[in-house]
Amino acid sequence: MLARLGRYYVFMAHVSAAERRPQLIKAAIDLMSREGVAAGSTRAIAAELGVAQATVHYIFGTKEGLYRAVMEQLTQDLVAQVERATPEDAGFEETIRVLAAALWRTVREQPGSHRMLTELTTFAMRSPQLSEVLASHYRGLIEVTAKLVAEAAERSGQPLAQPAEAIARWILASFDGLTDMHLSLPDEEAEEVCLQVLVSSVTALAGG
């Protein structure tokens, strides 16, 4: 197969849709992390990978279909990061502290990805085609966070004063707020204080 690369044409071996799909999702994430969601047209994403625009439409149908796949991938990645960071033998407060630190590290190290996720979330709120995947994104994060909260409480012998899901929602809402502030007005010293307050407030909400 011939593909255009700048002024030149190069031969590309045939790649199945199953193989091309994750490549296009990664290309979309890379492009939109650098240049923003507004730059994520199917033409631009195809060019990022060096394939025909028709390939994107063949695999995902529409731009919204590609965005849906991107959001699903981002959800899987965030859930995996949270699960990897969870200590197996720490008490409740220490577990929350470790999780908060691990998540915050991704914000500092990957600001483009978090900025893109914020933009995608706003875009999805306005798009009927993406409303369900946005709800699924938050359901997935709430579910895994609530599970980790409940496990930490059980491990430390601390009865929860509030439902694990309510505590999970508070953690995620607080984290989203801190992330938005960091992306708009970063202040490392103030953010460290806010993270400590977040851990203390979650511990108090849980009844510790």
TrEMBL record:
Gene Ontology terms for molecular function: DNA-binding transcription factor activity; transcription cis-regulatory region binding
Domain HTH tetR-type: 18-78
The keyword Transcription belongs to this UniProt entry's keyword annotation: yes
Taxonomic superkingdom: Bacteria
Keywords for this protein: DNA-binding, Repressor, Transcription, Transcription regulation
Signal peptide stretch: none
Residue ranges flagged as DNA-binding region: 41-60
Transcription regulation listed as a keyword: yes
Protein name: TetR family transcriptional regulator
Species the sequence originates in: Streptomyces lacrimifluminis
